[in-house]
Design brief:
By secondary structure, this protein is α+β, with helices and mostly antiparallel strands. The protein folds into 2 domains: about 170 residues, Bacterial muramidase (Helicase, Ruva Protein, domain 3, Orthogonal Bundle), CATH 1.10.8.350; about 100 residues, Lysozyme, CATH 1.10.530.10. The protein is built from 16 helices and 7 strands. A hairpin with a 2-residue loop joins strand 6 and strand 7. Helix 10 packs across helix 11. The longest helix is centred in the C-terminal third of the chain and has 21 residues. The protein is elongated, with a radius of gyration of 23 Å. Bound molecules: calcium ion.
Length: about 325
Amino acid sequence: MIKRNKCGHPPGAGLAAGMLFLSLAAAPLAAPRIAAAPVNYAQRPEVRAFIAELVADEGFDARALRRLFAQAHHQPKVVAAMSRPVLSPPKWYEFAPRFLDPARVEAVETYYGRNTGSYRVFDALTTLAFDYPRRAEFFRGELKQFLLLAREQGISPLAPKGSYAGAMGLPQFMPGSIRAYALDYDADGRVDLAADTADAIGSVAHFLARHGWQAGQPVMTPARIEAVDPDIITRKLDGGIAERRSLAEWVSDGITGFAFPGDLSSDPVGLLMLEEEAGPTYWLVFNNWYVLTRYNRSRLYASAVWELAQAIKLAADDGS
Ligand SMILES: [Ca+2]
């Protein structure tokens, strides 16, 4: 749906990898661990063990998998992108305008189809599964899901392209999510998340529904703090979001000025702070906002998606 996936996209990944090469060239003796990455994955013991597991558990052909892994290309750029230091998150007023650009509102489908990734997914996942120890377990799981997916779809695992983390198609789903949530929403006989916007949108809706989306319930609504001691409320915020409590508890602490539908579910409610240039704004966030964070963990992302949805709905209503 949106360019950023769960792992985030690295605008400077290519540059970072280029710098890595430069530093290796300047000091070849200083980095033997990186330089020693074997070329042929099929010969590595941990890959052989992985293949044996796939043969035993999923009935894959051992020789075919060995031939496949012999063609996997180690991608240093992928590791560099994953290893980027975590920058401090942007402020809402820096983040939101990029999402709420009129070009996105007017041309949603083409805009979000622009960047679905240029890495061969098999290379990216193999690199991360076997040369990125910190999350090897996760990426071995996704590599297995990817091989199962390719077998189910009758395609070569060498064909699909995706992000550096192996996320694919318009929704930027990881292979496990594709197997769990992808739908042939337009019923044309095939699931195509790369080009078919109906399938992509339907599949994201399926993902949200399965993660507890409640139709007709709100996502977020602005609120104010009117308390003798606002710190009682603001000190509950950790990274801009407070743990969920009952609405009655928030009200008794001094949260006011909000509106919501009369049939609001009784689920606990969170408090969110979004930093505008003029200062903080406060929002009550409901179950559906948390469901959006299952698709992308960022509180800014979830909030921007909601605002974008309002803008698209408004534009559509005006146009009808
Ligand atoms: Ca379809």
